């Protein structure tokens, strides 16, 4: 399955979770519900995936954790904040670059306008993988 097909299913799952809960819950609740919704669609879903930091072939102390990884291809970063900021987008782009994946979806469930492009944002990694 290609990233765009996965992205379409993720968006559907996001709307299902939002329609059930609405805004105002903790990120962890949305993350767990979204993972369940995606699994029920038959997708391979991993949560809190450790992303090691490699610099010049050396693994550095510390790791990042991806909220949700779908089909080993798409990262979903779940937020429940007043509004998304550039730092949230940069965080997801960094995850994409470190993992060498192409597509990420940033979603903010703490909104009254989930349909808005301010609440669900596709982030594309255009950087070539490091070899």
Question: What report would you give on this structure?
Answer:
It is a single chain. The chain is α+β, with helices and mostly antiparallel strands. The chain has one domain: Trna Endonuclease, Chain: A, domain 1 (3-Layer(aba) Sandwich). It has three helices and five strands, in the order ααβββαββ. The protein has a five-stranded mixed sheet, sandwiched between helices. It is globular. The two termini are 25 Å apart.
List its salient traits.
131 residues; alpha+beta; Trna Endonuclease, Chain: A, domain 1; 5 strands; 36% helix; globular; PDDEXK-like_dom_sf; GxxExxY protein; GxxExxY
Summarize the structure.
With 131 residues, the protein is α+β, with helices and mostly antiparallel strands.
């Amino acid at each position: 399955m290609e990233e765009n097909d996965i992205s379409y299913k993720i968006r559907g799952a996001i709307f299902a979770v939002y329609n059930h809960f609405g805004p105002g819950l903790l990120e962890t609740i949305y993350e767990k519900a979204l993972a369940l919704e995606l699994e029920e669609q038959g997708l391979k879903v991993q949560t809190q995936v450790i992303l090691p930091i490699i610099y010049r072939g050396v693994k550095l102390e510390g790791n990042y954790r991806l909220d949700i990884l779908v089909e080993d291809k798409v990262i979903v970063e779940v937020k429940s904040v007043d509004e998304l900021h550039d730092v949230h987008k940069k965080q997801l782009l960094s995850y994409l670059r470190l993992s060498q994946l192409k597509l990420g979806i940033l979603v903010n469930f703490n909104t009254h306008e989930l349909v808005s492009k301010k609440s669900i944002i596709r982030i594309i990694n255009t950087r070539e993988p490091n070899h």
